[in-house]
From TrEMBL, chain A:
Bias (Acidic residues): 18-30, 224-233
GO cellular component: adherens junction; cytoplasm; nucleus; plasma membrane
Subcellular location, record wording: Cell junction, Adherens junction; Cytoplasm; Nucleus
Organism: Peucedramus taeniatus (Olive warbler)
Coiled-coil regions, chain positions: none
Record keywords, A-Z: Cell adhesion, Cell junction, Cytoplasm, Nucleus, Repeat
Cross-referenced Gene3D superfamilies: Leucine-rich Repeat Variant (1.25.10.10)
Biased composition (Polar residues): 1-11, 34-44
Extent of the ARM repeats: 357-394, 400-443, 660-697
Encoding gene, per UniProt annotation: Arvcf
Biased segments, Basic and acidic residues type: 827-836, 853-864, 871-883
Protein name: ARVC protein
From TrEMBL, chain B:
Protein's UniProt keywords contain ATP-binding: no
Domain PDZ: start-end pairs: 2-99
Stored PANTHER family: DISCS LARGE, PDZ DOMAIN-CONTAINING PROTEIN
Topology class, membrane: Peripheral membrane protein
Pfam families linked: PDZ
Gene Ontology BP annotations: cell-cell adhesion; establishment or maintenance of epithelial cell apical/basal polarity; neurotransmitter receptor transport postsynaptic membrane to endosome; neurotransmitter receptor transport, endosome to postsynaptic membrane; receptor clustering; regulation of signal transduction; Wnt signaling pathway
Species: Peucedramus taeniatus
Protein name: Tax1-binding protein 3
InterPro entries reported in the protein's UniProt record: PDZ (IPR001478), PDZ_sf (IPR036034), Synaptic_Scaffolding_LAP-MAGUK (IPR050614)
GO MF annotations, alphabetized: protein kinase binding
Matches recorded under SMART domains: PDZ
Length: 911, 111
């Protein structure tokens, strides 16, 4: 319909229809912003240019009216009177053509351009502020495009069939927008993951619907039911104008204040001329960007400038909010859509909406039966809920928005609405106090309505059904993001999630399906792994019946472990899918000595969290994914699981080894990402509670660990953060504890140099402390002193002033958050003998131990059962540090990156 | 309407010659054939020319109500597919309905 001249514009317009995926950066306008410049020429020759910027995801549609300030006719800078005149005529003509759509013809642009140019020239500074921006010479090139787009925009407007008779006056801004939105259809507001309250405010107001409507349509009033308002044939516009004329003029009156005083004046002056036809652009005060488009030609108020003035909008907002309660449904939905647009990335407006009590009304609209209405209302809420200002989120919760959203989720089948709902919930979940509320109202519903169906998990698998694959839909992503956030809310939240029927099962199923399809970098997977990590935190303390599994001192297992474990057959644990029945019988028999729980039925629900099967899953994720957050979370999950002193942890630690997980982790130490290195280090540290692990880690990982330590000389030294360095140091400390072999490895990998450097000159006290502890420990191995001295080190290097007295190894530099007290360490540090004592057992286990084990491992694949208990107990660190604790968990509140996914395509199967 | 389709053997597979869409696990709003966009039933989305389904009278847009007596109105997409592609069945009997039929029924009811 519209001039195909603008391919680009067209393309842009199209997008909304297709639900283009990325909307996020709304700011940036994925497409090219289209500026629609409409020049309205009034009879009096004033040419007004309205420029509306329409960008797909533009957050604001700015209608800029560039007033070609009275040129000529007004006697205002008339320098270029002539040229403008020329344009005027053209414009005028155009204007009266289809609804004054000027843009329709390419000529328009040319004219415009011309005028523009001339205007620019003619307007000296005074106008610059005003016009330059709009005009932008560079814009000229675009003009044609703009025109095209404009038309387009205009066209679509007509979508709104109803023409409420344009009773609405004006505040125009609304017009355009709402209509636009309507056209959009799924206005997917980009959702931003709420992390730190990221909001997806992106409303897509700007999307132009590429509706091919004829110009005539423009007549319809858009905007709050003011469809016809602008677009009405000149005539109606005229009407408006006139009436508006005065009031418009009021723009200035309203105190909207034009940014540019000059402009204001001009407007006033113009006004008299306006009657003829175009109400001064002023007439349309705010229209929002769309407005101008709609108005095409009708008015070209110098909106843009005004638009930027917040005062300017105020009056509009109450009206829009009032429209939300209008009896005519389309008005409601348009108003909601417009609100969505207004709120897009505009914190002030969001706040105003709240103050004007718009939020309860919107929440009320969620229950409205018409999809158009509740869809737009939800979009508006989504935008409102996004942002740093959490008051809005609270407001939504206070008017029972959360249960309303959940209700709607249960009722609707519309994918877009579901996306909006879950997006809003994701936003809301980023605010701590609301997390429990969301859990209370929505946990089971979200699980049943979204997680389970989209994960492909079947609670009652049919005999002939093969496991379904997960569907990575936007709804799933949003929901998993929301659950990720809420799962970080502490022990009670974790408990609820663990006990939620089907949740853990479905998540695990989804993750396995992702691994199977090699699609592990997407956001949904990241969210799921984070949830798993969070739920694995403190499992050994928090799951019901946990105390049954607590092992007594790990030391005892060492003795018992050996022979018996060899006989154990892990088949049961490893075989079968998690969700299916395990061969528990075997398990029980074999693990009697380990005191593993007897299972009478398949593991399900939260029990799956710590079944050794998950190890394989996490390791696969660690091997395949490139997404740092996902890697960190998977390592974190392993860290959490291998922490603690209970039977399952023991089992998990051994399982990691058997599943050849240690090399995977060691390799990840090479990662460039701080968080990954940190998580992996701590996981290794916990894993080394298992004696055999410790030995293996000591031999194979030491090099990488040392490589991660900062060094001034080393050119390729990684520049890791303090926390990461501390974590690595702590890990080193752990593995050399009770193992002089490992201490020797440390020496061999040039670690001493770095450690001494750190202990003497690091800026961070924690690093210094940690390094000193390690050095002290090394020194405590008397047998190594020769080697050290040969390398040129002497005692002074190892006894650092800041180091706490021998007894204090407790916090090897960990400032308390790490609750690991290492009994082993204590032991060894306290006496020299301990060093040697340690030697002995080490030797025994030593190389032989390794080879045997490895051998065994190889033979048995993953069935090896042995599991040497670890003497030291370490409190698993969930996070590196306390302070990080929150962060970590809350990492969940990742921002949603915008989300507009293409609607899931319907699936077709051939039979 | 009852439609009986005799499957055709193609290599290792028995095919019917049509494709289906829908299911309780699918998004019903994308269904171009259904009158009610919340209908999650199984619909025939394509029929191969000359295939066994076409020969038997199946048309695109038909909604499959039953297959060999098994209900198809509340099944997942996969379940539906499975019911149609059982290897040990040579013939499938479908109970289908289509808009034209529905209208006919309505009209007869109203008159």
């Amino acid at each position: 319909e519209q001039s195909p001249s603008n391919q680009t514009s067209i393309a842009m317009m199209q997008e909304p229809q297709e639900m283009v995926e990325e909307t996020v950066t709304v700011e940036e306008d994925p497409g090219t912003p289209t500026s629609h410049v409409s020049i309205v020429t009034s009879e009096d020759g004033t040419t007004r240019r309205t420029e509306t910027k329409v960008t797909k995801m533009v957050k604001t549609v700015t209608t800029r009216t560039v007033r070609q300030v009275p040129l000529g006719p007004d006697g205002l800078p008339a320098m270029d009177g002539s040229s403008p005149m020329g344009s005027y005529t053209d414009s005028i003509d155009r204007r009266y053509l289809k609804n004054g759509e000027r843009f329709i013809t390419p000529q328009a642009s040319s004219t415009l351009t011309r005028s523009y140019n001339s205007y620019n020239d003619s307007y000296p500074e005074s106008h610059e502020g005003q016009y330059r921006p709009y005009i932008g010479h560079d814009g000229y090139g675009d003009l044609s495009d703009n025109y095209g787009s404009l038309s387009r925009g205009v066209n679509y407007r007509p979508r709104y069939a109803y023409v409420p008779g344009g009773t609405y006056r004006p505040d125009d801004g609304s017009f355009t927008l709402p209509s636009r939105r309507e056209n959009y259809g799924p206005v997917a507001q980009p959702q931003v993951p709420v992390g730190s309250s990221v909001d997806l405010n992106r409303s897509q107001p700007e999307r132009f619907q590429p509706e091919p409507y004829g110009l005539e349509d423009d007549n319809r009033s858009l905007g709050v039911d003011d469809e016809g308002y602008e677009l009405d044939p000149d005539y109606s516009t005229v009407n408006r104008r006139t009436s508006a004329g005065v009031p418009e003029r009021g723009r200035p009156r309203k105190g909207r204040g034009y940014d540019d005083p000059i402009e204001t004046e001009m407007v006033e002056e113009r006004i008299p001329y306006l009657h003829g036809g175009y109400a001064a652009p002023l007439a349309q005060p705010e229209r929002g960007s769309m407005a101008s488009i709609d108005r095409l030609g009708k008015r070209s108020p110098s909106i843009d400038s005004i638009r930027k003035d917040p005062r300017w909008r105020d009056p509009d907002l109450p009206e829009v909010i009032a429209m939300l309660s209008h009896p005519i449904d389309p008005v409601k939905s348009n108003a909601a859509a417009y609100l969505q647009h207004l709120c897009y990335e505009n914190d002030k407006i969001k706040k105003d909406v709240r103050h004007l009590k718009g939020i309860p009304i919107l929440v009320g609209l969620l229950d409205h039966p018409k999809p158009e209405v509740h869809r737009k209302a939800c979009g508006a809420l989504r935008n409102i809920s996004y942002g740093k200002d959490n008051e809005n989120k609270v407001a939504i919760k206070n008017c029972d928005g959360i249960p309303a959203l959940i209700r709607l989720l249960r009722k609707t089948n519309d994918m877009e609405v579901r996306e909006l709902i879950t997006g809003t919930l994701w936003n809301l979940s980023s605010y701590e106090p609301l997390k429990m509320v969301i859990i209370n109202h929505g946990l089971q519903t979200l699980t049943n309505e979204v997680i389970i169906p989209h994960s492909g998990w079947e609670s009652e698998p049919n005999e002939d059904s093969k496991p379904r694959d997960a569907e990575w839909t936007t709804v799933f992503k949003n929901t998993s993001g929301c659950l990720r956030n809420v799962s970080s809310d502490g022990a009670e939240a974790r408990r609820r999630l663990r006990e939620c029927d089907g949740l853990v099962d479905a998540l695990l199923h989804a993750l396995q399906s992702a691994v199977g399809k090699k699609d592990t970098d997407n956001k949904s997977v990241e969210n799921c792994v984070c949830i798993m990590r969070n739920l694995s935190y403190h499992v050994h303390k928090e799951v019901p019946g946990a105390d049954k599994y607590q092992e007594l001192d790990a030391g005892q297992t060492m003795g018992t472990g050996g022979s018996q474990k060899k006989k154990k057959d892990d088949a049961g644990c490893f075989g079968g899918k998690k969700a299916k029945g395990k061969k528990n019988g075997d398990l029980d028999r074999n693990f009697d000595t380990l005191d593993l729980p007897k299972r009478s039925e398949a593991a399900k629900g939260f029990e799956l969290l710590y079944q050794p099967d998950v190890v394989r899953l996490y390791l696969s994720i660690l091997t395949e994914s490139q997404n740092f957050n996902t890697l960190e979370a998977a390592a974190g999950a392993l860290q959490n699981l291998s922490a603690g002193n209970w039977t399952w942890s023991t089992y998990i630690r051994a399982t990691v080894r058997k599943e050849r997980g240690l090399p995977v982790l060691v390799e990840l130490l090479q990662s460039d990402s701080d968080k990954v290195v940190r998580a992996v280090s701590i996981a290794l540290r916990n894993l080394s509670m298992d004696r055999r692990n410790k030995d293996l880690i000591g031999s194979y990982a030491m090099g990488e660990l040392v490589r991660n330590l900062p060094s001034r000389q080393q050119r390729s030294a990684k520049n890791l953060e303090e926390d990461t360095v501390v974590a690595v140091l702590n890990t080193i400390h752990e593995i050399i504890t009770d193992s002089s072999e490992n201490a020797r490895s440390l020496i061999q990998t040039q670690g001493i140099q770095k450690l001494v450097a750190i202990s003497k000159s690091s800026q961070s006290p924690r690093e210094t402390k940690a390094a000193s502890h390690i050095l002290q420990m090394i020194w405590s191995y008397k047998e190594l002193r020769n080697a050290l001295q040969k390398d040129g080190w002497n005692k002074s290097h190892f006894q650092s002033v800041s180091a706490a007295p021998k007894g204090s190894k407790g916090t090897a530099g960990r400032s308390g958050y790490d609750d690991s007290t290492l009994p082993l360490v204590d032991k060894s540090q306290d006496n020299e003998k301990s060093g040697s004592r340690d030697m002995i057992p080490m030797d025994e286990l030593g190389p032989d131990g390794y080879s045997t084990i490895d051998h065994r491992d190889k033979e048995r694949k993953y069935k090896a059962s042995d599991n040497t208990g670890d003497a030291s107990e370490k409190e698993p660190l969930k996070n590196d540090t306390n302070r990080k604790n929150i962060n970590r968990s809350n990492r969940a509140s990742v921002n949603l990156v915008d989300a507009r996914d293409i609607k899931p395509q319907p699936v077709d199967s051939w039979v | 309407q009852k439609i009986e389709i005799h499957k055709l053997r193609q290599g290792d597979n028995l095919i019917l010659g049509f494709s289906i869409g829908g299911g309780i696990d699918q998004d019903p709003t994308q269904n171009p054939f259904s009158e009610d966009k919340t209908d999650k039933g199984i619909y025939v989305t394509k029929v191969t020319q000359g295939g066994p389904a076409e020969v038997a009278g199946l048309q695109t847009g038909d909604k499959i109500m039953q297959v060999n007596g098994w209900d198809m109105t509340m099944v997942t997409h996969d379940q539906a597919r499975k019911r149609l592609t059982k290897r040990n069945e040579e013939v499938v009997r479908l109970l289908v309905t289509r808009q034209s039929l529905q209208k006919a029924v309505q009209q007869s009811m109203m008159s």
